[in-house]
Amino acid sequence: AQPDFFGGASTTISYRNFSLFASLYYSIGGKIYNYAEAKRNQFRQDGATPSPEAIHNMWTKQGDEARFAAPYVSEHNMLWPSDFYLEDASYIKLKNVKLSYDVPSKFAKKIFLRSASLYVYGKNLLTLTDYTGYDPEFSDSSDPLNMGIDTNKYPRKRELGFGINIGF
Q1: What is the pLDDT of residues 122-132, one digit of tens each?
Q2: Residue 89 CA to chain centroid, in angstroms?
Q3: How much is the pTM?
Q4: What is the pLDDT of residue 78?
Q5: Which residues contact 165 (CB under 8 A, 6 or more apart)?
Q6: 134-143, long-range: CB within 8 Å, 24+ apart, which pairs?
Q7: Residue 160, strand partner residues
Q8: Residue 12: phi, psi to the nearest 5?
Q9: Per-residue model confidence (pLDDT) at position 141
Q10: Using only C-alpha atoms, what is the Rg of the chain?
């Protein structure tokens, strides 16, 4: 579950009254057990429909070239855990972007302000990964013994906004 390397980089670029801040975060290596997909494709009698890929690429008879194992029905009607659902946890994420404009002081003073700036921002805008789940940076802080097991938790939120900074 632990990555081999992780880190980040950020920069601010300014031109005249405009300023652009961006930060990237990366994580290379490590594995995630995609429990959500494994559970979905167990062919249990719990109402979950297996993925179309599993249904159409499942082994059914000798000689089949299949990607998924045959649905084995145990006494509990489920498949046992398999490393088949281990996936690469590597990703690069555009974490933060903020574009701001500083209002020239001569205009700010006309409306009795010392300074003013306008900005738009975004968080978690882009994730580049081969992971097939929602987000390889899922959070499961409830149990440190289950690190690297994606139980289909809701992914980190994407945030967009704007604002105004005013100095009196």
Answers
A1: 999 999 999 98
A2: 10
A3: 0.78
A4: 55
A5: 115, 116, 117, 119
A6: 136/27, 136/32, 136/89, 136/90, 136/91, 137/27, 137/91, 137/93
A7: 122
A8: -130, 130
A9: 59
A10: 24
The residue written with tokens 């404009």 in the block is 101
Q: Which of 150, 32, 38 is nearest to 86 (CA)?
A: 32
Question: Quick one: tokens of 66?
Answer: 């299949």
Q: Which two tokens stand for residue 168?
A: 């009196």
Percent of the chain residues topping a pLDDT of 70? 88
C-alpha span between 68 and 97 (Å, rounded): 41
Token code pair at residue 39? 């559970």
Question: Which one-letter amino acid corresponds to residue 144?
Answer: P
